[in-house]
Amino acid sequence: MPIPKTVLIAGMTFEIIEEETRSMVETGAIGEFHRETQKIYLKPDLSPGLKRSTLIHEILHAIFYTFGVQLTHAEEERCVAGLESVVFRWLQDNKIGWVREAE
Q: What phi and psi values does residue 15 have, to the nearest 5 degrees?
């Protein structure tokens, strides 16, 4: 199942774009969340599992933003990285939506 083109978080639509931004190229990042435009960018040539995991990571950043969680960049990155693997595994184990492993 392909990744979605958009996700809803608290009634807000976030667009998912499989495209590498200039800052991703410069920093080596494989995903980015842009608050101003409500867009999530993913490096297009990622493996399906890494793409799904990265999308969850960026969705978690969007959730933090949407609900006003205010942390330093480093603190937020630690929280998101820790939650990413747990949430990804939970979604996989329960065969939920686009996170399911390829059948």
A: -85, 140
Contact (CB, 8 A) for 19 and 41: yes
Report pLDDT digits (tens) over 26-50.
999 999 999 999 999 999 999 998 9
Domain limits at 13? 6-99
**Residues across the chain:** 103
In a domain, 76, yes or no: yes
51-101 pLDDT per residue, tens: 999 999 999 999 999 999 999 999 999 999 999 999 988 988 888 878 776
The CATH number linked to 29 is: 1.10.10
Could you tell me which of 70, 30, 25, 32 has the C-alpha nearest to residue 46?
A: 30
